């Protein structure tokens, strides 16, 4: 059975598996730890009981020793310690009763020990007082000694029974060691299992998320290179959905590209060819190949020729823009003098500038650049044409060349109204086709500026608009400087 998880569920799996594993490990270790603590408490309690029993044993023998010494030698030093020993004996018996209060069997033995204590003390009462040694006193001394020794022997046996009983309550060493080995083995297995679970989660994460994201990244690269995409990912998670959307978008882009190429093909063959024929016919009419035209016919012919030329320029710019933007255009790299580009550009706009009384001057133009001369000449000509058309009538346009360490910048500065300045900004810095669709911009101007931008960027340069002075607008483009050029 194959399971399908989304990213949220996979995230929960990554978090839940180690958590469950740790919970199970703690659940297994907890009773072992509790048992170990219980055993430690039992052992500590047993040792305390044994120590207190030994203390009681010591107190009894000190008391007997003091009693015997005091009776026989009548020493005041020994007699003075009897009360202290009796008090210590009472405390030891009370403490031992408290320690064995939770064990009935131990309480029975402690009760027997206390009885034997009293029997030993009563036997001590039979010791004769110190004085003259006679046969009777020696007999009484021997009899009392036998009674005390018998009481002490019984007390010693009872102490051994009690110690044996207490030690039996201590967990067996072999069982404790076995439990310790089991706990240590479980900890080692848990550590190894935790590492294995982490590795398994890493593999799961890599296969289910990272590798799938890498497929999408590879599809981005292939889409940019116009290569075939990797087959769609399987599954029902968000990554598979994203990949499906990406494939759908790529298919749409491919369809639009095909439609664009069909449109370009229509323009190139079905529109440009008859347009060229019409331009040729207009030239023949202008040369009176079909007879002399009237003045009205000449006017109409000139208007038709201008419209046909403009339409031909639009089609040419559209085809060139498509080639440059798609990377299909070839560029010839050669050394070009900027002054030559400017002079030819001035010639291309001389008639139009004269008709609008616009003066054009240039200064500081003497550097060389590397690039395709035909394409860069297109840039200069079209920028000059656009600036002349947008500049105020009777104004002055100044062409200024600025050279830095690595670049050369050509500025076309003129008095351009805000509407014209906005047009340059939209299509040189933020190109958009919205104004064309809305009918707010001349398609010839838009195509010219878009083509200039594409050519300059293809030469690893830059293009834009600035305002160097009040009421003045500079349209500029920048290209890498040719090393060694003046």
Q: What can you see in these coordinates?
A:
Helix 1 runs antiparallel to helix 5 and helix 8 runs parallel beside helix 13. It is built from 13 helices and seven strands. It is 71% helix and 9% strand. It is α+β, with helices and mostly antiparallel strands. It has three domains: 7-171, Up-down Bundle (de novo design (two linked rop proteins)), CATH 1.20.1440.210; 238-323, Helix Hairpins, CATH 1.10.287; 330-480, Histidine kinase-like ATPase, C-terminal domain (Heat Shock Protein 90), CATH 3.30.565.10. Strands 2-4-5-7-6 form a five-stranded mixed beta sheet. It has a two-stranded antiparallel sheet with strand order 1-3. It has helices spanning 7-73, 76-80, 82-99, 104-124, 135-168, 173-224, 238-286, 295-325, 338-355, 373-390, 418-428, 434-438, 443-458; strands at residues 334-337, 359-363, 368-371, 396-403, 407-414, 462-469, 472-480. The chain is rod-shaped.
């Amino acid at each position: 059975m194959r399971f399908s998880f989304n990213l949220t569920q996979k995230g929960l799996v990554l978090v839940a598996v180690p958590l469950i594993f740790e919970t199970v490990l703690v659940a297994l270790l907890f009773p072992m730890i509790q048992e170990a603590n219980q055993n430690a408490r039992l052992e500590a309690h047993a040792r305390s009981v044994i120590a207190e029993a030994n203390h009681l044993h010591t107190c009894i023998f000190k008391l007997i020793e003091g009693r015997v010494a005091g009776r026989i030698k009548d020493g005041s030093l020994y007699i003075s310690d009897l009360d202290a020993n009796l008090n210590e004996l009472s405390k030891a018996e009370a403490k031992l009763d408290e320690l064995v209060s939770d064990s009935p069997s131990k309480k029975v033995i402690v009760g027997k020990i206390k009885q034997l204590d009293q029997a030993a003390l009563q036997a001590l009462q039979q010791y004769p007082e110190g004085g003259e040694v006679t046969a009777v006193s020696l007999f009484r001394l021997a009899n009392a000694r036998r009674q005390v020794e018998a009481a002490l022997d019984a007390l010693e046996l009872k102490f051994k029974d009690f110690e044996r009983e207490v030690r039996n309550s201590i967990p067996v060493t072999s069982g404790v060691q076995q439990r310790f080995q089991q706990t240590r083995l479980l900890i080692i297995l848990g550590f190894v299992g935790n590492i294995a679970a982490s590795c398994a989660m890493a593999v799961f994460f890599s296969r289910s998320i990272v590798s799938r994201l890498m497929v999408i990244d590879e599809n981005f690269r292939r889409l940019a290179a116009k290569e075939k995409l990797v087959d769609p990912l399987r599954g029902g998670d968000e990554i598979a959905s994203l990949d499906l959307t990406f494939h759908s978008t790529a298919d749409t882009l491919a369809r639009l590209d095909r439609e664009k190429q069909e449109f370009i093909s229509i323009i190139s063959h079905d529109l440009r060819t008859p347009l060229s024929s019409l331009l040729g016919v207009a030239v023949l009419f202008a040369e009176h190949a079909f007879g002399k035209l009237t003045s009205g016919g000449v006017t109409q012919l000139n208007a038709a020729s201008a419209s046909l030329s403009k339409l031909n320029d639009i089609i040419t710019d559209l085809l060139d823009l498509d080639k440059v933007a798609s990377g299909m255009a070839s560029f010839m790299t050669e050394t070009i003098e900027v002054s030559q580009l400017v002079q030819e550009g001035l010639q291309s706009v001389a008639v139009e500038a004269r008709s609008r009384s616009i003066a054009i001057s240039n200064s500081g133009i003497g550097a060389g650049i590397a690039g395709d001369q035909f394409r860069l000449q297109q840039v200069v000509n079209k920028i000059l044409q656009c600036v002349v058309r947008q500049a105020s009538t009777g104004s002055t346009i100044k062409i200024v060349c600025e050279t830095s360490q690595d670049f050369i910048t050509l500025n076309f500065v003129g008095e351009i109204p805000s509407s014209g300045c906005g047009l340059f900004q939209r299509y040189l810095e933020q190109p958009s086709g919205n104004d064309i669709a809305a009918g707010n911009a001349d398609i010839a101007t838009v195509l010219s500026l878009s083509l200039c931008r594409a050519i300059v960027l293809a030469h690893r340069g830059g293009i834009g608009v600035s305002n160097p002075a009040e009421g003045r607008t500079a349209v500029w483009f920048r290209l890498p400087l040719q090393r060694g050029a003046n």
